[in-house]
Design a protein that fits this description.
Length: about 350
């Protein structure tokens, strides 16, 4: 929904930006200069880079009011901004000197009006644009935002067209010439002190945070960052470190179990090898005695008796101390050797 409304907004906005199709040197009618309905954006027959001159032709703009103006290709010539004490009108034909109080000015162009002598005192320090250096353009007349609480003030209500999905609705912006910290009440036309958080309100301008919530009370300003309680940070920290330590401990336990298993296997292997070594030594001993007895002229009867004798400890060893790895192999070897 938001995307759709944004798309609608930007598509209509773009057509407004590029509505003027005449480029430099082509004809135009000064009478077609106007503010577009709904957005109040300035429009002329000429394109974004030109203005309609009094001769009825489009000429390159002589100044700009925005740091980054719309409608220029990246390498195009961009007209300069105006020096201090001057302003660039919506037409952007040429810089003009600031206008004194009561002079005609253009919608929302507070910057076209001359600031009051005590402008530092009256200037709006907030980001809400209540005035520019203490001057304000209301109903196309330059004024100073110097009216104090309880005094009569002037108000200007402008209805912009806003979109919620495909629904259009009016977004009324109300401005006045009250000093910062107060607003001009549209009914009584008197300056009233702005309201603090949670006080009841009917419009954004009544709140010092410039945000009247739909439930009719002043909320914190729309761009104020969201703060989380200290417990959220604690929970996240505990979650992160707890997860880390749980993983480490689990891995440690798994590896310890595997290590123990391997150690057991190695111990059994060592015992087997030791038994095997002892068997071989015994075998050697038996061989030696049988050779000696052969040399003494005894018959093969005695050698058979010895071999029967010698096989007993071998079997004992292989039965008592064997890992799963070596058992099969050992018995095979024995079988072959002593058959
Ligand atoms: C430009 O001039 C032509 C012919 O002179 C005319 O038909 C046309 O409407 C003019 N365009 C504008 C924007 O004034
Ligand atoms: C307040 O501003 C108006 C112009 O808007 C001016 O005429 C008037 O003298 C100012 N009042 C004070 C007290 O400065």
């Amino acid at each position: 929904m938001l995307l759709l409304s944004l798309t609608l907004f930007f598509s209509s906005w773009n057509t407004f930006v590029y509505a003027g199709s005449q480029s430099k040197g082509e004809n135009c009618t000064v009478g077609n200069n106007r503010l577009q309905f709904g957005t109040y954006q300035f429009h002329s027959d000429c394109d974004a880079q030109t203005y309609c001159s009094s001769q009825g032709t489009c000429e390159l703009k002589g100044c700009r009011k925005d740091q980054y103006p719309f409608g220029y290709p990246p390498d195009a010539y961009i007209p300069p901004k105006c020096p201090a004490g001057q302003f660039c009108p919506d037409e952007s034909d040429a810089c003009q000197p600031l206008l004194p109080v009561s002079s005609p000015c253009q919608l929302n162009r507070d910057d076209q009006c001359e600031p009051p002598p005590n402008w530092q005192e009256l200037a709006d320090g907030s980001q809400y644009g209540h005035n520019v250096n203490g001057s304000v353009c209301l109903n196309n007349v330059c004024m100073w935002a110097n009216v104090t609480v309880g005094q009569s003030c002037e108000v200007e209500n402008t209805a912009y067209v806003a979109y919620a999905g495909t629904n259009e609705f009016a977004d009324i912006v109300s401005r006045g010439n009250c000093q910062t910290g107060s607003y001009c009440d549209s009914q009584s036309l008197v300056c009233i002190q702005t309201k603090q958080l949670a006080e009841t309100c009917d419009a954004d301008k009544e709140c010092s945070s410039f945000n009247c919530l739909s439930k009719g009370v002043c909320g914190s300003s729309a761009d104020s960052p969201k703060h989380f309680g200290i417990w959220v940070y604690l929970m996240v920290g505990v979650g992160i470190f707890g997860g880390m330590f749980a993983t480490l401990i689990t891995l440690f336990l798994i590896h310890r179990r595997q290590r123990d298993k391997e150690r057991e296997k190695r111990l059994q292997y060592w015992l087997e090898q030791n038994a095997l070594r002892q068997s071989i030594m015994q075998m050697k001993e038996i061989a030696r005695t049988s050779i000696l007895s052969l040399g003494n002229g005894n018959s093969n009867r005695s050698s058979r008796a010895v071999s029967e004798e010698s096989s007993t400890p071998m079997i004992q060893h292989s039965v008592h101390k064997s890992s799963g790895l070596r058992q099969q192999c050992l018995t095979d070897e024995h079988g072959r050797e002593y058959d």
